Protein: CULT domain-containing protein
Organism: Chrysodeixis includens
Amino acid sequence: MFYLLQFILLSYITSSFCVLSAQYPGSEKNGQELLLCRKCGADVADSHYLFSKSSSGAQKTEKQNLFGQQNVTVQTLVNPFGIKFDVVTAEKARCENIGPQQGADSWFPGYSWRICACPHCGQHLGWTFQRTQDSSTEKQSSGNIKTFHGLILKNILGENFTDSLIILPKMYKM
């Protein structure tokens, strides 16, 4: 009876992850690891798209090995209310942008921001930064891209970490 319950639970968990992948067909694995919403497990980004976009307002910047990538830039950014966020930047992410573009208090000069929420559950994942009209005359370079995302580390998980949480009973291991 106990093994039957484990099997049913495992089947349910596996089917839930398959449903989430089917809901986000653009979630192909281009990089080392998919980044997931910590609240619901939806795919929100691919580690292939992580890049270094320095903020002049960063309180601290360090390199870490995260999400199957080496030397990922992690910046500690502080908002006007004194709340600290450890943030990684990504060229592409699946976000539902909330609210109008805000130019004030941007951590990245020349970029306005909007809140980036999980498209599945609405969890705050970070911010989408878009180059402002004033800076559009500047040359386009890898350091001055049009749009990017700042993802809050504590609100995302790597899929390899979540895979390590699922333990199969010995009788089902191959």
User: Anything to note?
Assistant: The chain has two helices and eleven strands.
